[in-house]
Design goal:
3-stranded mixed sheet; 14% strand; Ferric iron reductase protein FhuF, involved in iron transport
Length: 278
Amino acid sequence: MAVDRSLRDAQHIRADLDSLGGSLARVARFQHRFELRTTLPEAESWWRCSDLLANPETFLEWRRRLGAWLLAEHGAQDARTTAGYIMSWYLRVPAYLGALLLHHERRVPSLRPEELAVRIADHGRPEPVGLAALGGSFYCLPLDPGSARPEATVVADERALAAILRARYTAHAARFVRAYGKVSPLGSRMLWAAATDALDTSLWWAGRDGGDEGAGVADAALVLGSRFAPLTSASTLHMGETEAGKGWCRMRESCCFSYLLPQQDECAECPRLRKRAR
């Protein structure tokens, strides 16, 4: 029996919407930090995360580019500052992508380095400006419209989904810590502190970028309700005094080492300041 073409087209559109690619297309409009893609373009500015981790020397070239930019902008650069910036920038790749999809879609991609890619800015400050989720697999809740897809793994509830995000992110971060530790002056404690900062901050940002900061804070509490080693703390988000008045802020676990640049001080939530105050 012939199937009406409009029905076939509707089924095709529905399948696209239910896919991980459909999720990325929907969440892209809620943020302006990154270009989001599901394919890897033939461009030198795009790097598959697994290639970066397999060749840690690539991080040295990235740091050299950052060092040249810092020298031009600030008249100086420091090895710890370049290492700190690249550390935070890289960890933001799996953290923000995972946080964005959890917040808006209640989905978690695999976050394997082989299935993620990052685009580094060609000009100016060499920071990540694009993210790509190259695999189609994802974890979701039972009522997710794509839960019957072969690439979907269904979990029982939001708490289980949060645990999946934490586990998938931590697995990616562990590979980064091993690779980056070979070429960085920063120790594993600092790298895991930065991994904790990236996840906590990204969950917060996902809510704030989408217009519901409180929901982002709630997601951070759900995923980081306590310390899960090797991550270094539970969520540190709290109400406090900010430049704009009372609002949400967080205590950093890691240091970006910006204070080593001329005429720069520690960040307001820098752990160095807390140590000094004790």
